[in-house]
Automatic annotation (TrEMBL):
This is K Homology domain-containing protein. PROSITE patterns: KH_TYPE_1 (PS50084). Keywords: Coiled coil, RNA-binding. PANTHER family: RIBONUCLEASE Y. It comes from marine sediment metagenome. Residues 15-94 form a coiled coil. GO terms for molecular function: RNA binding. InterPro entries: KH_dom, KH_dom_type_1, KH_dom_type_1_sf, RNase_Y_N. Gene3D superfamilies: K Homology domain, type 1. Residues 114-181 form the K Homology domain.
Length: 230
């Protein structure tokens, strides 16, 4: 029919148009490929010219650049390492000095404390009141007779005897132990107990002195009258 013939003609015409466009595209692609080849040729030529001017090849230039980067990286890394090590040493030295200073302070405190104080346990906290006495009469009498400081604080069932003189501190310790055991704590009894402790300590010191002289082979020491008090 007429319509069918027209459709066929239309299809044929479009096919011809498509064939023409394909040819045009192919020609354009060929032209572009030639342009690409031309550009690649120019790039190669330019690279060769640059290599001639620089006197080195591209591979050599890359190697040289990489070597330079490596050297710079090594130097930078070495500087960073040195900085970190220096800071670490400074920090370690500061901490070490602090630790040593703290240790010295603690040792000094412990040493001083051990040479100037003695602690004495009490049977109960009620004994603290008896040691102090009414209006502090007992503790004042005790300190005056022994020459020590008697510290009664909040530490449970404990009092502290403080004195740089170890002999006085020992006499005070013996006296206080006897007073606590006796339970009769008043100024007159304190005086009696302290005097007895001083005499006992004198005898102990005399015996220890004789023993030390005997151990050292000294037998001609002059006899001296012992002191009546500490």
């Amino acid at each position: 029919s007429k319509r069918l013939i027209e459709r066929e003609e239309t299809v044929d015409r479009r096919l011809l148009e498509m064939e023409g466009k394909k040819k045009e595209i192919l020609v354009e692609e060929q032209r572009l490929e030639k342009e690409r080849e031309k550009i690649r040729g120019l790039e190669i030529k330019q690279r060769e010219e640059l290599e001639k001017i620089a006197g080195i090849s591209t591979a050599e230039a890359k190697r040289s650049l990489l070597d330079t980067i490596k050297e710079e990286a090594k130097k930078e890394a070495a500087q960073i390492i040195q900085k970190v090590e220096r800071e670490a040493k400074e920090t370690a030295n500061k901490k070490a000095r602090k630790i040593v200073a703290t240790a010295i302070q603690r040792c000094a405190v412990d040493e001083v404390a051990g040479t100037v104080i003695s602690t004495l346990s009490l049977p109960n906290d009620e004994m603290k009141g008896r040691v102090i006495g009414r209006e502090g009469r007992n503790i004042r009498t005790f300190e005056a007779l022994t020459g020590v400081d008697l510290i009664v604080d909040d530490t449970p069932e404990t009092v502290v005897i403080s004195c740089f003189d170890p002999l006085r501190r020992k006499i005070a310790q013996i006296s206080l132990e006897r007073l606590i055991a006796d339970t009769r704590i008043h100024p007159a009894r304190i005086e009696e107990i302290v005097e007895k402790a001083k005499k006992d300590m004198e005898e102990i010191l005399h015996e220890e002195g004789q023993r030390a002289a005997f151990d050292m082979g000294i037998s001609d020491l002059p006899t001296q009258q012992r002191a009546n008090s500490a």
